[in-house]
Amino acid sequence: MFSSTKRLAKTSAIFSLKLTPPLTRSAKDLWRLDASEKYVRGEEALGPWRPRGISVVEDYKRLVAREKRSADVQAIKVILASSPPQPYSGGRPQEDILRGTLALWQKKFGHRGQIVLSQEPDEEDAIPTPALEPPVPLKLVAQTKLVPRSDMSTKAGYLLLLTDAGENTWQKLWFVLRRPHLYIYSQSNELEEVGVISLTGVKVESSVDMVALLGKPHLFTLFTSSNSHVFSAPNEKELHAWISKLDPTRIPSI
């Protein structure tokens, strides 16, 4: 929400606006519902582990089919062992035996139809078809929620905010953490409110590479569901304090 330069003396409430695409109405659109890349708060504790997709279902189907074939082979072995082979007496014509054998080879077992699971669209669906009329733009579904203002702050202090990455321009501002938002003021008297950052889906990262790239010490990046912001703390103690307050689930690096 830090996209407006209008300054306010004080806000009494904040409206949270969420725009989402409508729910799918056809089976062709189900592949678009892949949420494997969506960030889940606290997933850092899982380390290198990553959730698998529908390949788990395919592996399970192959395992079940292999075990079934193995069980069928063992059952046939028991039947053949219980009845030793006997010499051919000529009671049944060899042509009938050949036809029966070929019929068994050509017989299909299992389900007649096969359900194919895929997170990628079919080639037929991916090929664009010429339309006589221009496509209708997708209308997003809006959800508005009134977020009351909280006067209880968890953390407050001055931070440098990267306002222009191309020019490496920084601005010193006063930040106050009142969950679920981070309020931005021009001064510590909190009279002029510059902006508000929503902490929905927050993720905090701090790396040495960012420090070397931007040439500022004590850097950390705040990732939200709508934007990302780069801050510079005054010292190492404030850096760790802000990171722990903004994202309590983050495991500190040793």
From TrEMBL:
SUPFAM superfamilies from the UniProt entry: PH domain-like (SSF50729)
Top-level taxonomic group: Eukaryota
SMART domains given in the database record: PH
PROSITE patterns, alphabetized: PH_DOMAIN
Coiled coil regions, renumbered to chain: none
Pfam family, one: PH
Domain PH: 152-251
InterPro entries: PH-like_dom_sf (IPR011993), PH_domain (IPR001849), PH_KIFIA_KIFIB (IPR049780)
Gene3D superfamilies: Pleckstrin-homology domain (PH domain)/Phosphotyrosine-binding domain (PTB) (2.30.29.30)
Protein name in the entry: PH domain-containing protein
